[in-house]
Amino acid sequence: MSGVVLSTAYFPPIEWMAHYVQQNSITLEGYELYQKQTYRSRALIAGPNGTQILNVPVKRKVREIQQSLISYEEDWVKDHIKALESAYSKSPFYEVLMPDILALLLEKRTMLWELNLGTLELFERWLDVKSKWKLSERFELEARGLDLRKLSPKVASTVEYAYYPQVFQEKIGFQNNLSALDLFFNLGRSSWDYLTELEL
């Protein structure tokens, strides 16, 4: 495949990561305005009662994505850690991966862009792949290449997701296109095979 343009994402979803590992050229959109209620500040996980949203609060003033400031007025870091514990503490790779997540979240990075890069770097390290993205040069309404900046948790993915074991599947059924965290906690290094084999 030739190239894809992606918006930054907080613990990116499976579809986002599948494009990331399958494409030869990745451009991250660095000059768009921040958009709330999107993957830029939102990750979905499978909790004991169904799909759960982890949202990073951003200070209200609308800014370019690289200048969007995270708000720590509420202790969302503690909430996200608790949610991940309750969702994945019984998963096969929880003990291995959770310390890395804790270290990143407890840094309390100032900018959403930097936090999201940190989540992507974690995923790259867990997959043992080198970082291969480049920053967009400017904002363009029509991006060159496959434009996936509109991927959204509010729009159902059209990808057919192969089944893999999930912690609460017997209670809530199989949940697809969650944050790739769900893959890593449940499959570990086999996440690479899942992402590379997913038909996009």
Strand order of the largest sheet: 5-2-1-6
Q: Give the CA-based shape.
A: globular
- The rounded Rg comes to 16 Å
User: How many strands, which pairing sense, and closed or not: the largest β-sheet?
Assistant: 4 strands, parallel
Structural class: alpha/beta
- State the helical fraction: 25-40%
Total strands: the figure is: 6
The helix count comes to: 7
The share of residues in extended strands comes to 5-15%
- Taking all residues together, what is the mean pLDDT? 93
Low-pLDDT residue intervals, each spanning 5 or more residues: none
Question: Which secondary structure elements does this structure contain, and how are they paired or packed?
Answer:
Layout: E1 4-7, H1 14-22, E2 26-29, E3 42-47, E4 50-55, H2 76-88, H3 94-105, H4 112-127, E5 133-135, E6 146-147, H5 169-172, H6 180-187, H7 191-197
Question: What features would you highlight for this structure?
Answer:
globular; four-stranded parallel β-sheet; two-stranded antiparallel sheet; alpha/beta; single chain; 7 helices; 200 residues
